[in-house]
Amino acid sequence: FFNEIYGFRTQYASGKLDTLVTQKKRVVDSLNNRLKNYKAQIGPTSGEAKATAAMSVVQELYGKYQEETSNLNRLKAELRAIDEELRNIGGGGTTTAPVNNNNREIKRLQDRNLALDNEKEGKTEDEQKQIQKEIDDNVTKIIALSGSKGGGDRTKDADRKNTRRDELVSRKIGLQQEIIATEVNVRTFAGEKNKYEKMINEGGGDEVMLNEMQRDLDLASREYEGLRNSLQSSLDLNVNPENNFKQTLIGMPAEKANPSRRVIMSGLAGFLMLFFSSLIILLLEFLDNSYKTPTIFQRATKMKLLSSFNDIDLKKKNLQDYFLEDGPKNSSERIFLENLRKLRFELENSGKKVFLITSTRPKEGKSTIIEALATGFSKSHKRVLIIDANFANNTLTEKYGVTPQLEQFSVNGQPNAMDKIRAATGSTTIPNTDIIGCNEGNYTPSEILPKNHLLESIDRVAANYDIIFIEASSLNHHPDAKELSKYADGIIAVFSATSAAAQADKESIEYLKSTGNKLVGAVFNKVQKENMDL
To answer: How is domain 289-531 classified at the architecture level of CATH?
Structure first.
């Protein structure tokens, strides 16, 4: 009974769907034909393309229209000026005076000018220019012939007025013809411009109608596809939809629940993460060829290590603030100060007073080490002089704001040399510490320092100070340190823990070793706290 009832209903629904599909198909075909006919009516070019093309033509015509209008206004203004000048000259009457035989030639030239003015109409622009040139030549001849006439001043004045009047009349006739032609051009361009502007408005309407028809067709097509799919689904049913379900395998629950492997998977994932992280860290360490630790540095350079300095923050705290007795000091600060005191002891017991501070690379911390040493020696009541000879980067000169004197200073055998040297020194914020600054530039000491310069009198200067530090540029890029080494008792090389031993560094290290007893040793700077004891 149920199958009969459901089958009857399915047949009835299928019949109605078939009727709806047929009706909707006719609607879709009708809309499609309407769209094709409208496209054929407006042409293969879309309304938008037509409007765009018309807009381009309108812009061109508008430019020509403005040009012709401007030319018309200019011609009318010139015509008004000629009329005004004709009124000022007076009527057509002329003063009777004796004339010579030139009058006949003047009359002929005037008649020729009138004929040439009449010939301008309908000519091209180049031809009109040729005609105007001939008219101007004739006018020049008329003026020359008029000037050669006999008679008194009154006769000549009358002739000049007559000639000028003829010229103005001739030009007036030409202007009137040009005004007529220009007015025709203005009307023509205005009409063409209006026609294409109308096409722009009409093209926009075609596009709107075309889009509306396309939307109607798309909507009807979607409805037709939906009805057709519904009809196909109803025809696929075999009376009772439940009869379409065919069970091919009987489902049974598992006798025992599958054990959970969450702990095993989590442990395996953690182990793999630890393994790969360790592998990456080891790989990075293997590829890192920087000095990093004092032990690696000594093994790579085979130089005497005077002291190592851990990396401290100089942006939040000034270097001199680390030496305050009542200031709180963490372990990093204490390590830095203790190593600085060790370096001070090494320099005091080296038997040398003038130290050249250099490095293989720039930005290794030479200025910071010099400032720290000056502060340390001032704490032990020593007089310190800093000579900034780093022409590549005069950091100390800029920091203390002193006037550069090193390049200009020269003793030249004066008896009061020490007074002159004292005048060249500037003060610093460090107690008992003076500085002589330099300019920054692309030159070496031998190129810029004058004869009898300050460093040649370094022994006199050293007699007034307990210790002197000379900062020089890096060895890899500049020969400054090599040129200045002869003025120093000892050389101290500063190395950064973040640097590596490249070929240029190896050559600079070999030079330092070749200086013999002058090389006091190396200072290892910017070491991480955890690497200080390695």
So the answer is: 3-Layer(aba) Sandwich (3.40)
